[in-house]
Amino acid sequence: MTGHIGRREFITLLGGATVWPLPARAQQLVDKFPKIGFLQGVQNENVVAFIQALRAAGYTDGQNVRIETRIYGTMLDRLGELARELADLQCSTIVAAAPYAIRAARGATSTIPIVGIDLESDPVASGWAKSLSRPGGNLTGLFLDIPELGGKQIELLREAVPTLSRLGVLWDATIGAVQFRATEAAAHSAGTELHSLPIRRAGDLDSVFDRAVSERVDGVVILSSPLINGERLHIAELALKNRLPTISLFTEFPKSGALMAYGPNLPDMYRRAAIYVDRVLKGAKVSDLPIERPSRFELVINLKTARALGIEIPPTLLARADEVIE
Description:
Layout: H1 7-14, H2 24-32, E1 35-40, H3 45-56, E2 66-71, H4 79-88, E3 93-97, H5 99-108, E4 114-118, E5 139-143, H6 146-160, E6 166-172, H7 177-189, E7 193-199, H8 205-214, E8 219-222, H9 226-230, H10 232-241, E9 246-248, H11 252-255, E10 260-264, H12 266-281, E11 297-302, H13 303-309, H14 315-320, E12 323-325
Parallel strand pairs: 1-2, 1-3, 3-4, 4-5, 6-7, 6-8, 8-9, 9-10, 11-12
Antiparallel strand pairs: 10-11
Helix pairs in contact: 3-12, 4-5, 6-7
């Protein structure tokens, strides 16, 4: 979801078994290993965290497991096909990152355990689980507590910008309805006027920021989606150009030039997903594995951007920051 690593490093982390040809006997052995399916949007440091956590739990690709990775990128129309490939390989479990991948995996199998990593969906409201404590089906994993986070982001942005009265909310209309409604309710509770700024593709961003300026919003909460995260550099540039303070739940956003972020540590979520995989491989029933909420959140502030926007961040807010970018 965030960041970038080199292709050689990524292949090394995934292990050579899926890249280099093996002698026939060795290949037969690998084919007998439990298979871990992995549906992921991009190759990044979250993937590194997942692979490293698997190794820490005792699983190494090509030695005692086989990791079947499918990177879908922007090819969302191929996700169903990729998920069916993993189901046809009779994977012991499928790790699916983001709502698109979870939907595809659920469409491909109702029996293979699915470990989801999702910042945008409510698994119970979506009908994917009966409850957080006892999911009851073939899906468990890590899902964000959206209503609580939306209110916290508005509170932090208002603390940085005390004059904020008109709030823009940038969101991905293809998957973000639940997240948007929760943020809308939080804004109403805070007595803040909300302006919806939906996008469906990267090409919508320029016009959405033009509208934010024309509607005289004082700041923007940026909701999450793979599309939005992938466009963080462009979003940060547009926000700075239009002198709009922003807050995102992706902690990479301030590192890209945006003002603030408050959200979960994504590599931690991927490490936790590896622990779910370990439990499934050791025989745990996925229907009995509780769905987790992230427990670690980080506040990141870009002081350089604050100065460019003419904003003086209160010392009390700076003192609470996990990271301050000078």
